[in-house]
């Protein structure tokens, strides 16, 4: 165990190598005040870069995403990043049309008769209550959306064109961010952070209080900050002024324990945040997704769907025997076509399996993936006759505080400890704004590019 103290270098440690941690590393190196001779930046990632949701998400970017205090900035930064670093080529950045479609899918029996991706269960989950599609019938379907069977369409509503919606390949984007950050001196360590260690801070004249703004979303009185942390070296409350001193991690390869100094620690551990910071109200919601190489190339669309599939009576060979198979409940897979002749499909979330120890331990329920494949095959022959290339699952980080959709970006009330987490279903969209704002907090002492008082973690912790 080594702890270096007494240097005047600023030691910035980012915990978590998902899109938030990696994009934050990138923006720290792009800040005018960054000087590698004075600042060291280390990203500590437990398993592998982008091994969680950041490598398995859809990648839709939309001006109407939330929260609206960072979305316009982030949407614009995505555009700038793509322009500056060849995003089109390097991470599949492109403008994409987006729509909400309602369809009656073909039943399992018919798909089986037709062949292709058909022999899977048609598991039916409660459809997400999205916007009701107002435009009726096949005539509403855009002409270039020719890979969806028009006769099955009940309605289609446009949700975005080239000015409102775009996309990236999240894995490629995250890898590009960390590579660009490494080129500017950022160090990546593959190891699991075991503890954030603290020292007594010198008394501060400024009381540690959250900004006095609308607190209506708080579910109750704020919990005593950090008082229940069980990671040994850490115990703090609002009344005791502490500051970050070092971070202890276990190296993934050697299993050795190391402690590195830290003057600023940025917690970007997504759904794992509360394992390191128990009073952070962040949990994980598992979601499955699949990727498919379509039978022939498809136009650029991101589709929210509501598909009603005719009921299928149970049969002896049927995979499930629950009532969900014989009810015609709508399902709502999201379908994104990607530039490299790939279609990505994700389904609804489930709370069946708790967030596991690491991204490498995420349980993939093949049946749920097969359901997704059958659902989207039921409205597209390009998909039905395509080839499934990946079945996967991951956890999105959600904030379990009523009335607050997240994320939490900013100071925690402990000197030197910042948080960038809880991005729910818009972390890909909001990563650049998060990274830029955190870099401003680190080097300028406050967020400059957007007013993010509403996202201040101290309002909740
Ligand atoms: C199915 C699905 C589709 C989605 N589609 C979209 C979309 O289209 N558009 C959009 O904007 N968003 C989308 N999202 C949301 C987006 O994926 C997430 O908000 C985002 O990836 C969160 O990033 P993160 O870096 O906070 O978390 P993660 O990607 O989970 O990264 C956290 C990292 O921290 C590491 N870590 C955890 N604990 C430790 C520790 N103790 N020590 C070291 N490292 C640790 C983990 O290993 C992990 O790599 C989607 C999410 C899902 C699940």
UniProtKB/TrEMBL annotation:
Pfam families: DAO (PF01266). One of its GO terms (cellular component) is late endosome. It comes from the Eukaryota. Gene3D superfamilies: D-Amino Acid Oxidase, subunit A, domain 2, FAD/NAD(P)-binding domain. Residues 211-223 have a biased composition (Low complexity). The chain crosses the membrane at residues 12-29. GO terms for biological process: retrograde transport, endosome to Golgi. InterPro entries: FAD-dep_OxRdtase, FAD/NAD-bd_sf. Residues 12-196, 244-441 form the FAD dependent oxidoreductase domain. Keywords: Membrane, Transmembrane, Transmembrane helix. Residues 118-137, 204-223 are annotated as: Disordered. This is FAD dependent oxidoreductase. It comes from Morchella conica CCBAS932.
